[in-house]
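Collaboration report, partner site 2.

Our partner group contributed sequences for two proteins of shared interest, and the home lab folded both. The records are reproduced in the order in which they were received, starting with the first partner submission.
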Amino acid sequence: MGSVSRGRRRKTRRRTPGGYVRFLQLVTAGTLAPTAVAVFRLAAPLGALVGALAAAATATAVLAPIGARVRFGFQDERRARSSSTLAVLFDLLWMTSMLAPVTTLLAAVGLAVAHRLSLGAACEVGVAGAALVAGYGVLVRRRWVRRRRVELEIPGLPAAFDGYRIVHLSDLHVGSIDRREEALAWSHAANALDADLAVITGDILTTGTAYHDDAADAVGALRAKDGVFACLGNHDYYGEEELCAKLARRGARVLRNEGVAITRGRETLWLAGIEDVWRGAPDLRAALRGRPEGAPIVLLAHNPDFFPRAREAGVSLTLSGHTHAGQLAVPFLVSRATLSHFVTRWPAGLFRDGAASIFVHAGLGTTGPAIRLGAAPEVVEIVLKATPSGRGRPTASGRGHRSER
């Protein structure tokens, strides 16, 4: 076991939602035109005034609750399930209005091709389509977890670890929206793979300390031959010492700038974990202290932006999360066309740089609007392969299944 060095915790100011709320309201207001036009046309047979009032009421219903919805996630507290249901239903309305400009444009193109183009009709069809798409993302895709298998050749991997299987989970965000029951279902899906090792790459929580026990129960339900390990994500630094202690009591060890040797006979695989780059003080040197010379390294690092430093230190495989694959992505192009592509070079999936690899998990829970489109939640099985050539060729596959509840 490597010695622990957590370093000096990075001082970070607690987030305040005011500016964020105003930004979201401004962006949302810019997307409301198709929805307002569609509602006006639907109510117009009752009179122009009624149509105008209905459109204004719809705009208010979308814009006014944004502040409350954002604050809902900034300090997660114990809430009745009915409150969570209302938040999700608002997300459905909100995302319908946000998607409506895109679907209205598509509807306009279709109507133009059919020589039946009218702005009002395009808005009506577009908003209906946006509601269907948002409904799928909020109510179906968000809960439709796929199982994904990734085979990855690791240069220098001892033959004893050829075929070694790691089940990778990330970004559970246990809280008011993604509750204990959902998280337990994810753990049970992981257990069905009967992996050698189970890892979670951070953001176990949403915010706050109210759901520590629920999160610990879900992680504690994981089973693997060589144990369950995790690193912290930026959302986990709320009473993190208490959280880590609760996880440990349930059999899951959080690696905080430390490492542990996984052995097969005389061969060793070094599993390391670091603090989060935003909220902690990552110390990779400490995490590698005690590593036998030549032992391949698997690193748990929540934020994929740490990958260049891991590569320079000789880490064979970095496992990360954090991005959620943007939660909104073009289907089948999640590694190239996703919202997270605007903030990181490693938005989701498997990437190689020379002998080093990184796998960025798309996450299981959500933050912000409770929606996923084109960015499926996933339970990932990573299979390590030995290669005498020293060159790795990654392969991946995935299949969807609805988690048992």
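Second partner submission, folded after the first:
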Amino acid sequence: MRRKVLLGLTVAANCVLLALAGCTGSLDQPKQRAAPAASQDAAAAETPSGEAHQSVQPAASTPSVAPAAASESVSRAGTTLVPPTTPADGRATRPPAIELCFADVVAKARPAVVGIAVRAQLIDQFFRVVSPIQSGSGVIIDPRGYILTNEHVVANATRIEVTTDDEQTYVAEIVGKDATIDLAVIKIAAPQPLRALVFAVPDSYRVGDWVVAIGNALGLAGGPTVTVGVIGALERSISVEADVLSDLVQTDAAINEGNSGGPLLNLNAEIVGINTIGAREGGGQGIGFAVSSFTAAPVARVLMEQGRVPWAWMGASVDELSPSRAMDLGLRVRKGVIIVRISRSGPAFQAGLRAGDVLLQVDDTPLQRVRDLNALLRERFKAGQSATVAYMRGSDEGTAKVTFTEAPQR
């Protein structure tokens, strides 16, 4: 029994180290660090022959390693998959895999992360014009100097200054922005091409994956702040003032004031999302949100090309229907997209839809989640086109013909 318990603990420890060490093969020019031969001998002595090695073999599809490099990463990681040794002084050695994973992500991504300082012009509660300085973060997405950040970082800006990782400061101009999505693209004129990051494919990351947040937290001097966590949930929606932000990545990586606009990265240093808000009140302690690459990548592209987001607009803020909300409203359905806010001058209201209606289908496409509706509005319909929307209001079902428009700029 004692041998089985020790074996189980060894296998569990090795599985954790394998998950952390797997990323060392996913970045450019990874550091290689072999475990001491003595440690390997010690591990072999403590592990029953063959059993532990079979137990810690990775699955066929390791998400953070490209298929061509998978075997190399496993063999290289294998040199670190040993229990920490305890030298004569009694201090256990630190497994190198954790340091390699996150430090290499930061080294690759940091040159593309910028600090943003904004002088804004606002009207205070006494109707006086004030010009506060606010700070945020951004990420370079094009070597020509295009930077993606949050719209709320550059809102009401009269001057925007960007500081790159090499401590050079540039004046930036707004290329385009969209407040309903909370994204903006700004541009600086650098004398040479800049390091830029790429977006992660939306289906490539999962709940439980490691993520790294980098940004100008609290506007502190001395370079960006790095925090680490996991993806806690995908496709979240949250209410922010008069809007509902949807298709968000939820994470427990700390997102503090000043982190807004910075990247949330996977272990390949690809952009999983753009950090937008941290929830610290009530039950939201330790939770942050980022606009996912599913939304951020196409929005960034269209803002760079057109300076605005001309997608079809319903004039309604929506969320996914939860079982508890369905029970509270006395609905017979448990799946769908519910209208939580609606503009009285928007197409949805004019067509007869109201807050609380659950959208079930658009033309021949059923709606199971918010992403289904967003995909239709981005890819299938254009401003001026119409669609038949099936909905449920209480226990009654109905249809409405909605003629989409382009979202008003603000």
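Feedback sent to the partner group on the second submission included the following. Residues 312-406 form a domain with the Pdz3 Domain fold (CATH 2.30.42.10). The chain has four domains: 2-85, 109-187, 202-297, 312-406.
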